[in-house]
Inverse folding.
């Protein structure tokens, strides 16, 4: 499979959806050159969205990270579609009030608070605690041994829904290492208790339909074939966007290493429309 | 959990989404009284949609089945959202032309033809056949031993996408028996080859977002809380619609037996908003 | 990983365990040269056993297939340890009498009859049939569509144990094709009903402990390090024998293709002690 | 299903195999009355073995716990068959020398040291550390966040075998709570890396064949029907011993609660020969 220059693809689409980790940022922050790249894309009259399985901080905090030193905010928070946002919509629609126990850093609680319900960190819960939902938001911000055991026992006892706002199993830490993401912890607990957790995030198509609906409001005659999804992960970004009917570009700057790409695409049967070394090529 | 009269719920919503099998029909056809029920709901100014994991026949054929002896077609084909329809959209968007090998009855081929691509029954394929996609549409219309073995070997050899237009594992045949649905056959093949198939149908939320977008065109200010999803299966209808943020009514006339309902809801942790004996109560 | 000559390994061990399919035979029968090879090994004073996930025919029928044109039977049936044999032992120990419904060719029924219980082909059963166990023995000898649906409904209704006498997912048909083995059908049914089936065959170590106990009777001071297991499949032959503590040789004449071997060993983390092109090298 | 008095079963068997947790002990130690019960069984000329998925301490430490205040050691360490023991045999047979990184308390390292190889706690490893095997032994004795992330990255990089010396998902902490066992952590890591770990412990039959071989040395004509396995867990004790052909007694003093027992037996299709409230009835 030949690689394509990403820059050469931009002109063919009206709207670009970007994954964040492994595409525009890594564990150390936004990649050098990203604000300039985004400015260049926006100058060509394209709309840009970020579609990210992340519930560790608010969209406003995410938006600030992409700001350009001169031009300021490039991607407004309304164009950052995070899995946390879908979780928030769910809590607002289905709970309306009540208390939600959560696993994650304090910044994760934004998604619970802004749904109008009360967040309680699982580290502050007892096993018999009465809650209206349990939310698994992030892999940091709690004591794994103590708090995963409390979470397991709470889930066994209550019949409240359990929501997972990031189904990713791992995330790239650096070129050589990955970290266990909250999706792995959730899958472990779900298997033990035999209950069905409610997941928000790619590859479920809801992230794409939500972003497409936003984009469609700005661009009335937008068709799916006018949108390109750019991601680094076959099992989330690419299969999800393929299923939703978007064209897809796999970049080799994150979870998928250049030397494995052809093999993984063949082995898994997940076919991106394009293959690009990175967004800078 | 107390059961509610379905009739008493209708007034609270603007739009009703119905699952088909186990709710409005069974293996012998549309249930007695369904045309009259639908007429009554429509007379109250409600919009009605059918949301069904079914790719075994065209929406027009499905619509005809719900016709009223006097009033004719009650649910136009545009309001029947089948998993086959999403598969068709995918094939049109992602293939545009080519040949698609399929498992299913000849009527299933409608979804391939109407995407502008050429259907070929897998029974007419050789293992080395060159195709652009493989579509698993229905559990009938082929020789399981011969054609599942051909399908397995085709999938191993080609890197074309494999799509599954009905992820259900079983369907109710009568009060005592179930049948193996194509989703079970697909899961068996997927596990063997280790590839990721592309699934269309509940519980993925795309069926609900598609139907909601249609409903929203007719009812401009429609909110998700204005829609009730009525289904007989916790793992598809209820969890999918819950995830999308709709209210849900579980009816006990299909896959979920009355005597097990409370136990299953507790064991699986999938909570419908309401529990109704059937749509006739 | 370097390949070793199989002939050069024979002298290092006291007992050789062979897998059958992909090692000594294929879908067309015993490989050319196998009787001569076995004669040569036996002449060196080695004991030879066949350890095979196969319940499609009796050990006597299997033994006849390895006969040498001049020397007659080389591997007596007492040295052919099949998964069917373990299933027979189970039925004898746990049922003692009664009726067992089975999926498979008529020759499979040997293992049920010789356990002293009555075999009934599933094609002759009604859904409500009262049986004492259900045995999934072979992928041939029945109508998949009709009989898998009957089997599913029988398993849902009865609380009798379900035994699977061959957990293999596929078997090699020829150099290019595989066939769906009964283990795939069993896994599909097991997932649907949520019950735990009882499996006999590699990679469970019972096949190896049974064979080792037989070998130990003949060779009193036999240690596990005196035995070499020769197989073509990482997930059954190699991991099972590794777990039991035997040395293992992976041959590239069956399920594992030469060009993939190094990659699969690395990807799956299943490490054979030796790699041989075939038993003829 | 009627419950039977355990005392009335003892006379029918020559050898009794006991699971430990939930049968003879709980998180606070050996149950009151167990030494007296064991004395009484031994006085009747029965042989007693403990078959336990436990690699957290040595058999000598386990044996000491069952000692009688007057009669001293009742079950010698040679009759305590732990999953750690099988792991030790594997390491000795397959590695012979080298370094094994392990997760668990320091006492777990006994099984590695006594195999003649060098234990290194994973907390003392770097991601790039060269080791000959990785052993997951216990859920305590390490920092979950830090050390599970290191373990994941080590497993991704090395092709050394990964062994799991306790496949249990949870263990009972008290009447109301369970704890995450190392088997859950192992299953989470295995799923992420896609490699096959080597598991020791029930339900694999190797624990039973090992114990039966020991028992057979003492009692030359012992048959499987002379042995009763007593356990509290359907998915490990009961299905494993059933598969090996032993009679089984499920006690309701541990993982299986009395009020759920009939339902779980039916739902899972795992049938114990007997049901007993506890070993004291």
């Amino acid at each position: 499979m030949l690689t394509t220059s990403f820059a050469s693809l931009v002109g063919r689409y009206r709207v670009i959806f970007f994954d964040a980790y492994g595409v525009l940022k890594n564990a150390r922050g936004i990649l050098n050159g990203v604000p300039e790249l985004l400015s260049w894309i926006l100058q060509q009259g394209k709309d840009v969205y970020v579609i990210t399985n992340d519930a560790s901080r608010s969209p406003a905090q995410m938006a600030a990270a992409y700001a350009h030193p001169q031009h300021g905010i490039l991607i407004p928070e309304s164009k950052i579609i995070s899995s946390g946002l879908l979780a928030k919509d769910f809590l607002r629609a289905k709970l309306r009030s009540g208390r939600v126990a959560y696993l994650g850093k304090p910044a994760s609680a934004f998604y619970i608070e802004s749904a109008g319900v009360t967040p309680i960190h699982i580290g502050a819960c007892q096993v018999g605690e009465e809650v209206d939902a349990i939310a698994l938001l992030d892999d940091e911000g709690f004591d794994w041994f103590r708090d995963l055991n409390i979470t397991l026992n709470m889930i066994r006892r209550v019949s409240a829904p359990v929501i997972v706002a990031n189904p990713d199993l791992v995330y790239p830490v650096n070129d050589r290492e990955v970290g266990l993401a909250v999706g792995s912890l959730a899958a472990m607990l779900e298997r033990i208790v035999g209950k069905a957790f409610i997941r928000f995030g790619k590859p479920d198509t809801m992230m794409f339909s939500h972003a497409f609906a936003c984009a469609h409001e700005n661009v009335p005659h937008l068709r799916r074939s006018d949108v390109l999804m750019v991601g680094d992960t076959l099992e989330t970004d690419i299969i999800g966007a393929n299923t939703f009917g978007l064209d897809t570009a796999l970049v080799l700057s994150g979870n998928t290493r250049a030397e494995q790409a052809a093999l993984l695409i063949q082995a898994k049967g997940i076919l991106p429309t394009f293959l690009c070394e990175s967004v800078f090529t």
